[in-house]
Every structure is written in structure tokens, then in C-alpha cells.
Write a structure and sequence with these properties.
single chain; alpha/beta; two-stranded parallel sheet; 21 helices; about 5% strand; globular
Length: about 500
Amino acid sequence: MKDDKILNQEQLSAIHHGDGPLLIIAGAGTGKTTVVTERIKYLISQKNIAPSEILALTFTDKAAREMEERVDIAMPYGYTQMWISTFHAFCDRVLRADAFHIGLNPGYKLATESESVFFLRQNIFKLNLEYFRPLGNPTKFLQGLLQHFSRLKDEDVSPEEYLTWAQKQKGDPQETKKTLELAQAYKTYEELKVKENIMDFSDLTSNTLMLFRQRPNVLAIYQNQFKYMLVDEFQDTNFAQNELAKLLAGKKQNITVVGDDDQAIYRWRGAAVSNMIQFRQFYKNAKIVTLTKNYRSTKQVLEKSYRLIQNNNPDRLEVKENVNKKLTSERKVKGTDAVFLFANRVEDEAEKVVEKIKELTISHKLSPIRYDYKDIAILLRANDHAQPFVRALERHGIPFQFLGPGRLFHREEIKDLIAYLKVLYNYEDSASMYRVLNMPIFKLEARDVAMLLNLSKKKNLSLFEAMEDFVKPQDEEEFFESNALREKIKTITDMIGRHLKRVSKD
């Protein structure tokens, strides 16, 4: 295999690491995915490790797919037996094969968040809730309850442990009662899921941990299979996932973790940055490699970012492990100075940004470079934060394109498609049928749609049933319309009929 990648000394040190634990502190743009891929390639090609003996765990499906693609390119002869997946996908695969060892059905249904809420609502009276089931709105706290139960799973707290802790609490009687109610509801909810053969995503990790802890023989099978283990985006793993990784690493401790505590973005979802800080404490002989050569950003961006991140001290690896994490740019481009615009209100901030855009797109003596609107981007943390900027751009007549995924559902064609799918789900949904009839593709006049609405009211039918009635042979004295209109309506009803036959009945 030809290796045409130019790797720096730190990257090579991580890639060629032998046995034992390895912590790779990889700053933004330092090529961490390349290092992980090249290490897998090194283990297979140089250390003769079979692909099936390597386990690579990532945090997101996107990261897993990217790693698979890179390994596929790096290993042209194939790696079909290699395990590259997210923590959830790995646990699901283990439980599908071995859940019966702890009395769980491997054929369980994996519930989405909305399905879990619905399941909890169906069983709300079995939870014996008082405080968390207010009479005015009995389902008010369901979402919060599920998030609480999920966080307990992420923190590796079992229902029995939580109930025991709640029973020992002393203090305000009202608060103690609420805590005990939560603990008992948590225990009941877990029992209901087992009875109904349902698991949610937090169960995947917790049940796999239960399997490995209660059945050491099953754990030994996986420990013997995986000679080497790699965990990407380690800063975003939660406590339970870290415990799972330590169990799988076993006594061999051939575990490589890659991450950067400065890039932790999932703390609110239970991610424990302490996992990175405690890695060296748990693995006393762990080797630490720090990647600081950035191949993405300019010197100006890196210097300003480093200065800003210092505000997180002393709770950073740079301080805890006394390592240098200051990134240096390999692009050899200084870049323009970063400008900080400050305003007391977000609307004022949006105005300042728009004024800056106008300044950049108008050429004058002080700024000989004139930018086009397409050269400028506004980055926001969440889609909801975009509205003040959208309004400001519209006010000043500046053309823009909003690329947030939430905007997809505001597009007329998407609204039309959703309306049509709603009709297929429930043909009595006259509001959705009305939108379908007004689609330009069907070329119906407003008076034609109004006539169908009047017919549905007159005969007490849904709009779709009125359309079916309309295309039937009629007495000319009772009802008369052009054959062309009948053909248009019949085309629509026939199309809906064809698609209804293709709807799954499961």
C-alpha cells in the first residue's frame, strides 16, 4: 500500500504507538481523523491485526461513516469484518446477539424519543405519580421525566441505586417525597419497558453494561475478540460510555482515545469532560500525544481562540496535565484581524453586522477590496437566533440564503408534500386535501375548489369523499360540470387511490 500522506512527528508518534493506553489530545484542524485512520491502517498492515480484532467507536453516525470511508480507501483489499460504529450502534449489535444472557429479549423494539413519550403517556397511571401528574395537565412533566431517567442512565445509576438513595434522604419532607416519587417512577418505567420488550437509546449502554457486569463470560468473549480499541470524540462521551470502554479494554488496556476538552459541546446532554481528565488517573502508564499543528485556520483565528479558551482554566487538560495545547498554523497565512462587535441588544447587534456587510461590499479608497454578498457568511449557534439577522437583512434589501435545516419545512413544496402525505395517512383530513387541490400542478381554478367545498358541506362528506362523489356519473339536471374538470378531479382521486394501496399496513 502506497502512503502518500505527509504526516508530522506528533501524528506519527500516535499512529505508531505500540501496546497500552494512549491519549491523543487533538486540537481543531490538527488531523485527528487522519491519525485514527492511519493508526487502524498501521495495526492491520504492520502489526498483522485482523480487521475483526479492532473496535472503533465514534460519537455520531456521520463520524462513523466518515471513518469507514477513509479506512475503505486506505485498505483497498477490504475490511468487511471491522467494527466501526457509534456507541449506540455497537451496544445494539451486542444486545441483539447476547441480551438473552440477562433475561432480555434480543428482539426488542428500539423506541424513538417521541415513542417513549407516547409509551409513558399510555402508562402514566401505573407510575403512581402525584406531584408530577398535576390535575390540570397530567402529561405536563412527561418530557422532563424521560430526560431525568435518561440522565440517570448516562450517569450509570440503576433504578435500585436511585431508590435506595432516595429512601435515605432527610430534610424538607416535600422535597424528600418528590425525590422518592421520581425514584419509584424510574423503577416502574424500567419494569414496564422490560415487560413490553421496549428499549430507548439510553438503555442500549446501560443494558450492555449490565450484561458485561453480570456475565463475565460474555465480556471475556468481546475482550478476547478486540485486541485494540479506539474511541473518537472522547470528550463527548458520558460516564456510562466511559465505563463501557474501560470494561472492553480489560487487562490488555490497548485503548486509544482521541479528543479535546476545549471542543466539548455536549455537556448539557450528559457528556463528561472529566473522562479525559481522569483517563491518565485510571491508566497510570498512559502515553499522551498532543497534536498542535493546525492545517485549517489562519494565525489570527488561532491566537484569538487560544486567548478566549483560557477563561476555562484551571479545568482544562493543558493545566491539569501540564501540556502545551496552543495551536500553530501550518498555512503560514496570518489572516485579517478579528473584529469584535458589541451591542446591548441582539437587534442592535444585527444592525451592526448588516452595516459591516454593506461596508465590505462597497469599494472605497480605504478598502480597495470589494466583496460580493456570496463571500460573506453569518454563523449562528442555533436556528432560532437567526430571526433578528434575517429581519435586518430584509430591511436593508440585502439578498441572503438561510441554510438552517429548520427552514426546509417553511418551503412551499415541502408544505405541499407534507399535506399530501397527511391525506394518505387520513383521507378525511380536509384541510390537507384543500392544500393539495390548490397545488399549481393540478391547475384547478378557485371556483372549482369552492364548488367541491360546497359539495362536501351539502352532503356532509370529507373533501376527498366529495371529490369521489363528484366524478361519479351524475344526473345532468342535478349537477353539471365540464368533462375536463371531472377528468382533473378523477386524475387526483386515482393517484391518491394508487398511493393508498402502497401504504404499509404494518
